[in-house]
Write a structure and sequence with these properties.
By secondary structure, the chain is mainly alpha-helical. The protein folds into two domains: about 70 residues, no CATH class; about 70 residues, no CATH class. Helices cover about 50% and strands about 10% of the residues. The longest helix is centred in the middle third of the chain and has 28 residues. The N and C termini lie far apart (about 55 Å).
């Protein structure tokens, strides 16, 4: 039994299968550990149906909302005025649909990664000990504190020891696998 949904204002014609005008690209999907090949009919320059446009517009709105909610939440937590409509419009203007934006990811050596984790945890603990909520701390200032602690080298030896222990455990487990 199918349920009828309210009419979509963008849906002017009945939904149809996308017409494939160009050679399709093949993709794969995994469903419960089984891989299936799928035709990918959408390509640059594809003319959208009303239903396709509606789905993309909905996804666009959800992405904007999900990405902007942090700015509103931070303002509320800090008892500051929330971002304005102009702030939102500026964000939306710079938003690129389908692109991933975020912090620059820098691959560190395992010791550097562990050292950064230790410094992060130490600063979080210090904030907690002083009754300061992490959410109220400026993220740039927090990252500067972490970087300063990393540069001090105070946690380098501990990080090296953790990585050595982890490596020894991994090496041991590999040796056990060769026995079977």
């Amino acid at each position: 039994m199918s349920r009828k949904h309210a009419a979509d204002p963008y849906d002017e014609a009945p939904a149809t299968e996308p017409e494939i005008l160009a050679p399709t690209t093949l993709g794969t999907i995994v469903v419960m550990e089984r891989t299936y090949t799928v035709n990918l009919p959408y390509h640059e320059g594809h003319v959208l149906t009303a239903s396709e446009a509606s789905v993309l517009n909905q996804t666009y709105k959800e992405n904007l909302r999900n990405n902007f909610v942090g700015s509103v939440r931070r303002a509320i937590e800090r008892n500051e005025p929330p971002p304005t409509q102009e702030d939102f419009e500026a964000y939306a203007k710079d938003y690129t649909f389908g692109s991933r934006r975020g912090k620059l990811q820098i691959k560190l050596d395992p010791v550097g990664t562990e050292e950064r984790k230790l410094c992060d945890l130490r600063i979080r603990q210090a904030l907690k000990d002083k009754g300061i909520k992490f959410a109220s701390v400026d993220k740039d200032k927090f990252h500067s504190l972490v970087q300063g602690l990393v540069e001090s080298g105070k946690f380098r030896a501990k990080a090296e020891e953790i990585v050595r222990q982890r490596q020894a455990t991994e090496d041991f487990s590999l040796d056990l696998e060769s026995l079977s």
